[in-house]
Amino acid sequence: MINPAVDELAEQVGVKHACALLGRLRGSHYRAKKPPAHGPAPKRPTPPNALTPAEQAQVLAVLTSERFCDKSVSQAWATLLDEGTYLCSMSTMHRILRRNDAAGERRRQAVHPAKKKPELLATKSGQVWSWDITKLRGPGRGVWFQLYVVLDIFSRYVVAWTVQACEDSQIAKTMLEEAFGLHGIPDAVHADRGTSMTSKPVAQLLLDLGVDRSHSRPRVSNDNPYSESAFKTLKYAPVFPDVFGSLADARTFCEAFFTYYNHEHRHSGIGLHTPASVHFGTAAEISAMRLT
Predict the structure, then answer these.
(1) Which pairs with CB-CB distance under 8 Å and at least 24 residues apart come from 256-260?
(2) Residue 273 DSSP code
């Protein structure tokens, strides 16, 4: 053991220098000389000013009385003190409440039920739409363009899109109104909980038209998988640029891309048909041709 060597050298130079010379930590040296006792820790002695069981019962009765049952410990303690009554310290009140399983928030608390996972089901085109907004990098530092995209979840057909310099609920409302005029009014529209998606103009538009609103759960990104999948197809395309030189460049690129996406892209989620084929009802005929 190294301890005897440290002790022998410590007689000449002291424990601190002996440990330094022999590479021994002083804490380890002292712990080895006096190992901790095993078994239960000794019971803490009762302080002489501790409350008696009767006094503790009195404090508990006061704190749980009708007068103070919905007040915090600090409120009850201060009220009693202003009336000239001192039962004990606030920390002692907390200890008594914990010991009797009465600690915790004493006021009424709002109960928020768990958010239900949205279930989007469409059996034909035009029933359920999904929309979202993503950023496109602009020409300078901190410059971003906002791409709004609405698609039909049954056919994956992009029914509306626009690229703007900012995110705005009025832009979103106008885009949806134009899409409704061109493709009809769906039964439901799903989106995440962004400011434009939950804005009053968009909500009022859908309410006036009798369209059911569906939103993702808070902080759950994959509750809007159709829009997220479309954005990944866009941004992982080999032709997708790192930077757009201007708003006009972004719009020109998106015009070409969504034309390709709707009419040429074979989507894995719809049997490798194009969104336009499924949306306009020619997919069954093409499937039959594939089998011949």
Answers:
(1) 258/149, 258/158, 258/161
(2) B
Q: Which amino acid is at 21?
A: L
Instruction: Say whether both 160 and 259 belong to one domain.
Output: yes
Q: What angle do CA 48, 51, 56 make, to 5 degrees?
A: 165
CA–CA dist 173, 189 (Å, integer): 12
Provide CB contacts within 8 A for 158, sequence distance 6+: 149, 150, 151, 230, 258, 261, 262, 275
Query: Residue 274 burial (CB < 10 Å; 0-12/13-18/19+)?
Result: buried
CATH of residue 276: 3.30.420.10
Taking residue 223's Cβ as centre, other Cβ atoms within 10 Å add up to: 21
Q: How many domains does the chain have?
A: 3
Ranges under pLDDT 70 in the chain: 1, 36-37
Q: What is the pTM of this model?
A: 0.63
Distance CA 241, CA 52 (A): 77
